[in-house]
Amino acid sequence: MTVAERREREREIRRTHILDAAQRVFYAQGFELATMDQVAEEAQLGKGTLYNYFRTKEDLLTGVTERHLKRMVAKYERHAELASDGLDLVRRMLLAYAEHISTPINHLKMAMSLWVHGPPPDLEGGTVAMMQQNIAHMIGLYRQAIERGQTDGSIRADLEAVPLCMKLWSCVNGALLLKLQLSSGAPPPQVRAMAPTVEDTVELLLDAIRRREGAAPASIEQAATKPARDDEPGASEAS
After folding, report:
1. Together in a domain, 147 and 80
2. What is the secondary structure of 129-181 as a DSSP string?
3. ∠57-59-64 over CA atoms, to 5°?
4. How far apart are CA 73 and CA 230, in angstroms?
5. Digit-coded pLDDT (tens) for 103-148
6. DSSP label at 25?
7. For a Cys staple, 29 with which of 34, 74, 144, 217, CB 3.0–4.6 Å?
């Protein structure tokens, strides 16, 4: 290993260490209340060293978010190799998403806050575009899973893939929001006793999209050419 390679490796290790510290601070304080000083203290680094890697806490949020999305995509791709059919892949992806975004529960809390309030106003346009591209890529992976199921006969052929992606994602996020509320202890006992789990919700959704006996599967051409509106997220991902 050359001196330059060793320095680059050490820099990447330190960058990862800083992102880990920033993630812990964001979870504990919330993004809005977190400060660069808190991140430096958590990482046990001087503020000057921290600023050599990240100029602002918005830059830290970018790093944390990008890393999280890349790990999620990697999980999806692994499940694509293991799934027995398209319906099984959709199940695996929804459960992997729910587990990934809600572990620890404070990550889910931060994500929900960002969804409700939108990205921080100081976040650079290029960063917002990167986040949108990553999300569109994930939706594209869901679309491919659904179309795989429509081709292999495990998912109903009459459903449009991209709108279905958004409906599945929205329903699972609703179950995750309920999970977040339950973790706070806010709902009364009678509500807690009746509350469905994320797994219950996913199985209900899968039952709704499962192809029934006697229904014909989509042909490869039908699945590939099913129209998607230009303004739908992920519409360009399967091309």
Report:
1. yes
2. HHHHHHHHHHHHHHHHHHHHHHHHTSB-TTS-HHHHHHHHHHHHHHHHHHHHH
3. 90
4. 23
5. 889 889 888 887 777 777 766 666 677 777 877 888 899 999 999 9
6. H
7. 34
Residue indicated by tokens 């109903």: 156
Task: Spell out the residues 6+ positions from residue 183 whose beta carbon is closer than 8 angstroms to its own.
Answer: 105
Task: Verify that 138 and 215 share a domain, yes or no.
Answer: yes
Give residue for tokens 């099984």. Answer: 88
Q: Which residues pair with 210 in a beta bridge?
A: 155
Query: Which residues constitute the domain of residue 212?
Result: 57-225
pLDDT at residue 238, rounded to an integer = 41
pLDDT over threshold 60, residue 29: yes
Identify whether residues 26 and 91 lie together within a single domain: no
Cβ burial, residue 203 (10 Å; 0-12/13-18/19+): middle
Report the CATH number at residue 11: 1.10.10.60
**Mean pLDDT taken over the chain:** 85
Question: Rounded to whole angstroms, what are the CA distances from 178 to 172, 194, 221?
Answer: 10, 11, 39
For residues 81 and 168, membership in a common domain is answered with yes
